Amino acid sequence: MEMKARPEIVISTIDFERLERLLDSLPNNGFIGKVELEAELARAKIVEPKDVPSTVVTMNSTVRFKVESSSDEFELTLVYPKDSDLNGRTLSILAPVGSALLGLAQGDEIEWPKPGGGVMRVQIHEVAYQPERSGEFHR
Prior knowledge:
Layout: E1 10-12, H1 13-25, H2 34-43, E2 45-47, E3 62-67, E4 73-79, E5 90-92, H3 96-101, E6 109-113, E7 119-129
Parallel strand pairs: 1-2, 4-5
Antiparallel strand pairs: 3-4, 3-7, 6-7
């Protein structure tokens, strides 16, 4: 069985440094999502914030997704754990799907866990808001 190559990911120097600090602050064991996030950071292309393409998902980006098997769409903002809320509109970088999303671009697809088990394929339909594109480099 052939492994599908994961798409290249781009991360800004600011996000990279903040995420490294976040990882350093976490306990080493029993932490879900830490290994995945470390793996994503290790393979990422790190660029200056001003050089992040405008269609790439960065920290605090709001992303509109399209569910492949239907016409459903949903929107979430990728956030640091401290900015997570319970209204269902944020996605923590420490959630496995959060770390998988970081650095992907408009048009990329990922597998999304379905409530109750299984996965669905979703496409990044649009990066509706990206701090870097708005000139907000020091958030």
